[in-house]
Amino acid sequence: MKTEIEFRDPFFTSSLTEEKNGLKISYPLADGKNIKEAACQIRLNAAKYFSSHSVDDIQKVSDEVDSSFSDLTKQENIELIDLIYRSSGFSKYDIDHWGLGLFRSIANYDHGTRGYYINKAIKGNGIIQTRYGYLKRFGIINPFNKWKEPSLLSHFISGNVVGYTAILSRIGLPVKLKGSAQIMKLPSTASFFPMIYLNKLETIDPELRKTIACGYWKGGDDLIEKSIIEESDAINILSSDQAIKDLVARIEKYHRGITTLMHGHKIGIAYVSKEFVTDSDKLEQTIDGLVNDISAFDGGACYNVKNIYVQGDPRKFAEMLHAKLELFEKRISPVSVNIRSTGTSLYQIYSGSNDVISSDEKNVFVRVKEKPEFWKPDELFRYVQVMRVTDEKEVYGLISKHMHYLQTAIIAVPDKKVVPILLLFGKAGVSNIHYPGSAPLINVYEEPHDREFDVIRVRYNYSARFTATNFKRNSDWIS
Amino acid sequence: MKKKMDESQYKELLKESITAQWDKFEYFRNICRKKKRNIQDLMKAIDYEEYYQLPAIASTAFKKSKGLLKELNDFSQGGKFQVSSNTSGDPSYIFTNKAELDKVVDNYRLTFGIEGASRAIGFSPSIRILDALSKKAGYMGYQSIGRMKLALDAARIHYKDLIFTLDIDLFRTLLYKVVNGKVVLKKKFLDEIIDIISAAERDHEKINLGGFVLLLNPYLDQLKEGQFNFGDNAYFTFAGGGYSGAKGSIKGKKVNKPEMIKKIASVFGINKKLFSTNLKDIYAFTECPATNEGYWCEDLEDYLFETWHESRVYIVDPETEEPLKSGEGLLKFITPYTNGNPSAANVSVLQFDNATIQGIKPNFIVSHFSHIKRFQNASIEGCAYKAEEVANI
């Protein structure tokens, strides 16, 4: 028997039905004819709602929504994980650990310090000790820039992960005074959880839900997107570079000068220093962590590690990594059936090469290269390249020419090097420096996303960038 | 005329080519080892005409982004890189010895050339453009030549009167070079095309219109039904695909093949009976020298391709690579080198195109196939790096 789920939106009333894995899901479908009308209505709703509710009250609503996903022992969430798994194909482990896992850090974060570190980083130029790590601003804040609330903020959501894409609506909630009306474009895949998130919001505060219109349309549909661009005064895009280029060209044409946040292609890196290569316990824990950082959402996320720079023998490291990746896939987090054909193709291409470690399981691929480079992978999969480097300065030299693609760096280095690497990699353009095994876990109250604090940036064009670590010393993650 | 190669000649040349490929390429030996086959097994498979047992190299392995060019090419013989037409922005590079380069040109000559026709219009970039692109594509210190350039060289050998519809606008290019360094292209005007076609019609001469459908169609859209009455004197020879509406930087409308054929017939006055002799498409790819001809088949509403006489083709399961008896699967081409000495590991190639079996022998060898389309992998949508953009950065 099929499980039927119907998601509704107050403004986009048409629907699109998708059937898979015993699920029949209807998503709201945007209609080019009523975009302007919907924009007008949510603006009115937002003006009314945000003028009659305090920032603290709204924060409480938002917390209640987030907290509802943080207890994974609740039956409701166990069922939710199964539904997300059936609709997206991602492993239950990934959905549990990285998708809903995000909400644990949001819900548990100290209320008093929310916004504190971000404000401090914007105002000051030093290295800030946050609750979990360090935060540093790079670049200058123009003192003449003014805070400006967007009346309508539109999001173009990507479909490559579960979790972060659902909480984008939090960006429009008030920071100082009032919030924004928001339009959200659902992606063609992994739309299930963003809709669940909005449904939860509706059950807790139906009036706040009415400040958001959410639906699917085919990316690039100018009939719809022209109206959205014209109506919005801020746009947040998480997508491919090609889609961003296309949208930006049309923003220039239809509504030049509006705030546009562009989160395009990213390629994650890892640096493992000799201390973590020569000590077998540390090496094992580093590789165990990297296995998670590589495998999460089958390597399709912006934070997945692709380039691994090792201060030691890359082949030995790669062989160990391959064995652990394969075991992890088999026992804990299987590759999605939706993407298995990519593994078959990669195997057909690389099974003859001495430089790519693979097996007839076709689920993980590790390239080995003596001469280091900044490698741009030819496929998105559980697929990485391991290279030998002399030190972190060599890594800096390799990555600094590719700032556009930088976001997450995983480091396994001695304690004394954590801050120097924050400065070095931050200068190169890395945004999030994490310990092995934590690439997917962004701490929204003290870490930027893709060098930005989106929640501030849509209101305040600060023209600087930020880098944060999610640990201070190795004892924070290593036993 | 295609020279028939009998099975024993094919076997001998294939044995020679496979033995040389085995000796030269560790990559090939590794693949064979993983499929539990040694060189004796391969020779036995050839003796028994079970060519499908020869492991294939995926054609995409030759793409620049894969980083395998040193493992897959042998530079010990003189030659050049054959380079694909850059459709995806990530071209394939196949080092090709002189004898094989000549063979590719000869294969195209046999397929493009229409007996008794000396006039042709190539709806394609000119040789001048392709020369420049070939020069630019040089790699690892070796010269390169575009596969399309080889095709046009072949057409030039056959046709005395050959014009191309896309060329460099020399004057404006010189002018713009100073300003922005860009090359300016010019397309032939419709009237020029009509004049050439009309002259052939008036003189009762055969004419071949060939090249990319995407470059022909904008002209075809502007021609009227009944504009010409060629009978059996007009021939169409398409190549390079592009039916999806895109061929590299050439963009157009998605092509509905039956509608296009209908339009061609009505504009040029070609009888339905002639569709299976005068309207053809060529299916070829850089990783293989074969140039398979497909004539329009009304029943299939598609071209019916005949396997190139010097290749053995299988349609295989995408996952297991086992040969299929019917239906749709990936194309596997086995084509020996003309001198028996491969300069790349491409004697047996798995091409990531789907096709449907239309004619098959009891030993799985496919004689005819149709409905070729690009094999698509599921891809991840989002903000992670997309591989297809590798060469555009």
Short description:
Chain A has 479 residues and is of the alpha/beta class. Helices cover 38% and strands 19% of the residues of chain A. In chain A, strands 4-5-18-17-16-11-12-15-14-13 form a 10-stranded mixed beta sheet, sandwiched between helices. A 5-stranded parallel beta sheet of chain A has the order 8-7-6-9-10.
Index terms:
heterodimer, A: 479 residues, alpha/beta, 10-stranded mixed sheet, 5-stranded parallel sheet, 17 helices, 18 strands, B: 393 residues, Rossmann fold, 13-stranded mixed sheet, 12 helices, globular, disordered C terminus
Structure classification of chain B: alpha/beta
Work out the strand percent of chain A. Answer: 15-25%
The count of strands of chain A amounts to 18
Model regions low in confidence, pLDDT < 50 over at least 5 residues of chain B: 384-393
Oligomerization category of the chains in this entry: heterodimer
Structure write-up:
Chain A is of the alpha/beta class. Chain A has 17 helices and 18 strands. In chain A, the strands form three sheets. Chain A has a ten-stranded mixed beta sheet with strand order 4-5-18-17-16-11-12-15-14-13, with helices on both faces. In chain A, strands 8-7-6-9-10 form a five-stranded parallel beta sheet. Chain A starts with a strand and ends in a 10-residue tail after the last strand. The mean pLDDT of chain A is 95. Chain B has 393 residues and is of the alpha/beta class. Chain B has one domain: Rossmann fold (3-Layer(aba) Sandwich), CATH 3.40.50.12780. Chain B has helices at residues 7-24, 26-34, 39-47, 69-72, 98-112, 127-136, 147-158, 170-179, 190-202, 213-222, 257-268, 275-278; strands spanning 57-58, 79-83, 93-97, 119-125, 144-146, 161-168, 185-187, 207-211, 234-239, 246-247, 250-251, 279-283, 292-297, 302-306, 312-316, 328-334, 348-360, 366-374. The termini of chain B are far apart. Chain A binds chain B through residues 158-161, 187-189, 238-242, 263-267, 297-302, 304, 306, 338-339, 341-342, 344-345, 348-355, 360, 367, 376-380, 405, 450, and chain B through 26-31, 34, 57-58, 60-61, 63, 65-68, 71, 90, 318-319, 321, 350, 352, 377-387, 389-390, 393.
